[in-house]
Amino acid sequence: MTSEALSEIWSKGLASRSFTIGGAITLALVGVALVSLAWTPYAVTEINVPMKLRPPSAAHWLGTDQFGRDVLSMMMLGARNSIAVSLVAVGIGAGLGVPLGALAAARRGWVEEAVMRFNDFAFAFPALLSAVMITALLGPGAVNSIIAIGIFNVPVFARVTRGASLSLWQREFVLAAQVAGKGATRITLEHILPNIASVLIVQMTIQFALAILAEAGLSYLGLGTQPPNPSWGKMLNEAQTFMYLAPQLAIFPGAAIAVTVLGLNLLGDGLRDVLDPRLRRVR
């Protein structure tokens, strides 16, 4: 992609409110996660019982939990864990789903039928049910959450890739490549995938938001990230008992999940407008 094309995309992105707001929220989330790699106000394993359930103050900006741990530090590490789990899970989904969808579109016939029936089978087991089955065999944990969410994302990317690819296989430039003697694999790599890259990027953004939501849900049920590693979903679960004593324990992680999912959805909406002129809307 030339510098002129990148400059045009950037200028269109800045003109889109969805792109700018979603991008700002996403950058803030990533920034918090990166800062937590090197610094947090307090160690998340530091227990200080006399300071338990304290409201926000100068010493603890978001207050403390039932063990006297700093909520801000836990929120920062929770952001990092959510990003890590979701990023790997979406990577697994795209890494397996995109080749399957491209294969179905290129080969058609029984290959396409087999891939689509596999998708139907995988859709019958949503992330939560998959996590329950996996943890019943392997035990709860972040790795099992990644596997469950990743498996759920495979058919999503396969369907999107197949649908976008099928419309291109009838285009003149693909027919010209076939006449020139190029095989299906080469055409897919050189012509199909580059032309559907924008669709896949938008879908990855949307699935990333859903993966963060799924990770929080699994952690809330005790199937995701395990203590002492903090998780927004686990923090919500633990806050139930103290809703009247310290409502901020539920408000902060709940707001973080909501704002993060909103920001990623806005970013995906903005990217769709920027990368696909046919879908651009007046805002």
Overview of the structural elements:
With 283 residues, this protein is mostly helical. It has a single domain (3-279), classed as MetI-like fold, CATH 1.10.3720. 73% of the residues lie in helices and 0% in strands. The chain is built from 10 helices and no strands. The protein has helices spanning 3-14, 17-38, 71-107, 109-123, 127-138, 142-168, 172-179, 184-220, 232-239, 248-275. Helix 3 runs antiparallel to helix 4 and helix 3 (71-107) packs parallel to helix 6. The longest helix is centred in the first third of the chain and has 37 residues, at 71-107. The protein is elongated and about 75 Å long. The protein starts with a helix and ends in an 8-residue tail after the last helix.
Please specify the SSE layout and strand pairing.
Blueprint: H1 3-14, H2 17-38, H3 71-107, H4 109-123, H5 127-138, H6 142-168, H7 172-179, H8 184-220, H9 232-239, H10 248-275
Helix pairs in contact: 1-10, 2-3, 2-10, 3-4, 3-6, 3-8, 4-6, 5-6, 6-8, 7-8, 8-9, 8-10, 9-10
What would the principal axes of the Cα set say about the shape? elongated
DSSP strand tally: 0
Structural domain tally: 1
- Poorly predicted ranges (pLDDT <50, ≥5 residues)? none
| Secondary structure tally, helices | 10
Order of helices and strands: HHHHHHHHHH
Name of the CATH homologous superfamily: MetI-like
What is the helical fraction, as a range of percent? Answer: over 70%
Just name the CATH architecture.
Orthogonal Bundle
Rg for CA atoms: 22 Å
Average pLDDT over all residues? 89
Q: What portion of residues belong to β-strands?
A: under 5%
Q: Span from first to last CA?
A: 27 Å
